[in-house]
Amino acid sequence: MDAESFLEFASQVTKWKMYPYFDVAHSVLCALHVRDDLGPGALAFSRKHPISCWLSTMLVVFAGGMLSAALLGEPPLAPLKNTQQLLIATAVWYLVFYTPFDIGYSIAKFLPVKLVFSVMKEIYRCKKVHDGVLHAAKLYPNAYIIMVLIGTLKGNGASFTKIIERLLRGVWTPTSIETLQPSFTTKACIIASVVFVLDIKSDLISAPHAFVYVFVIGFFIYFKVFSSMILGIHEPMLPFENLICAIFLGGIFDYTTKAFKNTKDDKVDTKKKD
């Protein structure tokens, strides 16, 4: 594929509609997340507490839109006004939890099916991050931190509402706050948001916007699908984080201080023995 053909393809990708297929993929993986988080008692819980199960699933599906809307001074329930998306999410929730012989869940968990849905989900995520950055840029043209924040929340809002989503199911896990232990998905959304901000608000990226958009999709698919699901690498950024922490966040100084203190203590102990 030559450069002109690829650019034309990239331009078409930026215009893809998310409804209904990508919405279905997103809803399926969200419902699977809720069911897997419930553990072995998922079916029993869904039979005993269907409203709680539905509410927690809907919160996961629409978390990004609800969080970003609340922070931007818009109605938090605005994402639920799209009846078609709400019906899709509800239908998927029912299929994952209530189909006879658990056929819906088994099909969704089947690896080839899950891989396809995961690829579609990452395309959907890129769209959400991109739209979040653009929306924040219109409201706050010079607030780059807000653009990155909204883009991140749009792309991975479910991780930030996990504590509330579990609370709807009667489980209180205060240590599950995303800011304490950010997942790779959150870090990837931050990187993608920064890339889109630089592309939109600066001249540092000279490539066409469509190319940048497809590059971010490739970044999500490679690290979230291929690297995580196939190779089993869930934290590909960990070596870089350790290096940055060691250099800029006091790691080297703490290690040096500790080593110096241990040496000093050894000398004191030696003198006492003498």
From TrEMBL:
Location of this chain's protein in the cell? Endomembrane system
Molecular functions per Gene Ontology:
identical protein binding; potassium channel activity
> One Gene Ontology cellular component annotation?
endomembrane system
> Where does it primarily localize?
membrane
Transmembrane intervals: 53-72, 92-111, 210-231, 237-257
User: What is the membrane topology noted in the UniProt record heading this document?
Assistant: Multi-pass membrane protein
What InterPro entries does the entry give?
Answer: TRIC_channel
A single Pfam family it belongs to is TRIC
Name the keywords, alphabetized.
Ion channel, Ion transport, Membrane, Potassium, Potassium channel, Potassium transport, Transmembrane, Transmembrane helix, Transport
Q: Which family does it belong to?
A: Belongs to the TMEM38 family.
Q: What is this protein called?
A: Trimeric intracellular cation channel type B
Q: What organism is this sequence from?
A: Macrosiphum euphorbiae (potato aphid)
